[in-house]
Amino acid sequence: MAQSATSLSARLPEALKDAAIAAFISLALFAFIVGIRTVDDPGKLLLQPRPWLLAGAVGAVFVGRLLLNLFFWGGTHTQSAFAPLLAPLGRTFEKASPWLTPALVAFAVTLPFLPFTDRYILDVAIMVMTYIMLGWGLNVVVGLAGLLDLGYVAFYAVGAYSYALVATHFGLSFWVALPLAGLLAALWGIILGFPVLRLRGDYLAIVTLAFGEIIRIVLINWYSLTNGPDGITRIPRPTFFGLELTRRGEPSFHEFFGIPYSPMNRIIFLFYIILVLALITNFITTRLRRLPLGRAWEALREDEIACRSLGINTRNTKLSAFAIGAMFGGFAGSFFATRQGFISPESFTFIESAIILAIVVLGGMGSQIGVVIAAIVMIGGFELFRELEQYRMLMFGLAMVLIMIWRPRGLITSREPSVYLKERKAVSGELVQEGKG
Amino acid sequence: MSAPGAKDSILRVRHLTMRFGGLVAIDNLSFEAGRNDITALIGPNGAGKTTVFNCITGFYKPTEGMIQMTHGDGREYLLERLDDHVIARQARVARTFQNIRLFGGMTVLENLMVAQHNPLVHASRFAIAGLLGLSGFKKAEREAVERSKHWLEKIQLIDRADDPAADLPYGAQRRLEIARAMCMQPLLLCLDEPAAGLNPRESDQLNQLLLDIRKEEGIAILLIEHDMSVVMEISDHIAVLDYGVKISDGTPDFVRSDPHVIAAYLGVEDEEVA
Predict the structure, then answer these.
(1) Every domain range in chain B assigned CATH 3.40.50.300
(2) Per the domain annotation, does A78 fall within a domain?
(3) A293–B127: do the CB atoms touch at under 8 Å?
(4) Touching check for A434 and chain B: CB below 8 Å?
């Protein structure tokens, strides 16, 4: 005890100094945010100073930092207090993934019939599944091929508008329009890819970002085709082999099967559609990874020059990654359109691209199960904290900062080899390149 | 200088010039590499050796000159007109790099599989047959794994086939890069300083490997090397570059005693040897 007391007093000056610096920074930050309040007086804006609140905030930072310094960090500024919490978490996921995957699939399949499932939970689940599918699609581009794409939402929009337009104008059903929307999105992926893929790294990111915005602005301004900011309404719902899931469908699902009508039927049906679409996405991606094409994507991420020396046409390989990623985005987009029944350019802003990219990066680039976990945590967690209202965004930002400090490469960092001779050993994340565009 | 006569050459470099702005990296260089020969390109630092390699493999487009590759069946390729990946795929020129360029995050076996990308993509019918799991692709993939195993045994890395390439020691990475290039089944293998950073024992192993490759595969090797002992021991023919100009060309014995070469390496004034 005595020893601890001496060391405590020895640390005190240093801790006081550090706490004072922290308090000063918080003073600078809070002076305008907390210290002054604007009051809306009719005709003018009044500034109301709040010195006591400011003093309280700065004082709290000072005391808190001092206590942390003295009792929690033991005099040294390490992150060790929290860091060990997350590292084993990632490793647990990595170890658990052989049984985690079937467990998650089984959970997803049975979810609509679990006792606690209500309409709200199923709606959230549909949203999470949509983002999982988008994350898997973007994972092909960012995680496997190492091309940073900040405009992925463009393909989501192309898919959504393709379905909405062909369905409302030509009366094509969802199941006919779905492949069409995927193909159109893939085509746009190639159209974007051709001029852009000679750029690398940051430049590629900026141009893809611009492409995402261009698509949105075209959707807003091409009024004769897209109905501009008013959006497209009355997009047909998907049918179950021609059976409509409405109360007065011709023919209707509940009458055909002789069950009472419930609006839940449609939600459950939508959930299964997106589940199947997502599983197809996953199946194709994991399969492609083990094929020469997928291996070339990963080789491209590792070293593009070496790829060229081995006779790999890097332009076509990048284009194929872009096209396939875009195609999955297009599928997800048509699903979104048919689920909402209404789309407008507002649904396809940059923040959507950012969220999808965040899911891929947080989950661990190139990891399929990582995307699932990240999507559940981010989209599901976002819903969970709905009561927090405007603080939700704050929590979200904080969580992302913390994860990036402790797990900069995302939750699941290790890479599974695509082919093996004796045993499949996971490649440690530290050795895997992230790609330079 | 004794130009090698009208013998069977796989590679003919004629009047090759490469300028970067005002800098002339290679000036009117001509040399030939014989089929089934080990040809060495030597010279002091900055002589332009790697630039020659980059021109041959299509990473640079030469300012002037012609690079002609002739296959055993008489097919000819003008390399200065082709893209790098076409040179690798069709003209069948493989290369390694001065600073090793392996796919570090992929396993040793995967590195060799990537090198067999083109035949495999073809067999997988651009991934469609592969997605469906058709037997034609399965067979091609088994063959590719077999070829990889053959080369892994040759470079003594078969036990580490499933380890990431970045985990290998330096010497093993050098060998793996050569094996990766050989998995492309090239007709001309260009090695950029393969002995750099190797200890004498590894260097000996490398010489043996290169001689084996020439004997068993019957291909030509073009080699950049600083280490004269390695070069003298295994090459059939040496071209010496200094400041982008060829100063000597001939057998190892001829080059060893050429006063121009001695001057370039030891820094004697030009007038003294002239």
Answers:
(1) 1-92+186-274
(2) no
(3) yes
(4) no
Residue A413's CATH number: 1.10.3470
- Prediction pTM value: 0.84
Tokens of B32: 């030939």
One domain for residues A137 and A223: yes
User: What pLDDT, on the 0 to 100 scale, is given for residue B19?
Assistant: 93
CA distance linking residue A357 with residue A419, whole number of Å: 28
Q: Using alpha carbons only, give the angle A95, A100, A104 rounded to the nearest 5 degrees.
A: 160
Q: For residue A302, list chain B residues with Cβ-Cβ distance below 8 A.
A: 103-106
Helix A174-196 and helix A314-340, axial crossing angle in degrees, nearest 10:
140
Q: Is the interface score ipTM higher than 0.95?
A: no
Q: Are A61 and A91 members of one domain?
A: no
Question: Which homologous superfamily does the CATH classification assign to the domain defined by B1-92+186-274?
Answer: P-loop containing nucleotide triphosphate hydrolases (3.40.50.300)
Where are any strands of DSSP class E within chain B? 9-20, 23-34, 38-42, 64-70, 76-78, 93-95, 188-192, 220-224, 237-242, 245-250
Determine how many CB atoms are found less than 10 A away from the CB of residue A217.
11
Q: With bands split at pLDDT 50, 70 and 90, how would you rate the model's confidence at B40?
A: very high
Residue A134, amino acid: L
A316 at interface of B, judged by CB pairs closer than 8 A: no
Does A417 contact B162 at a Cβ distance shorter than 8 Å? yes
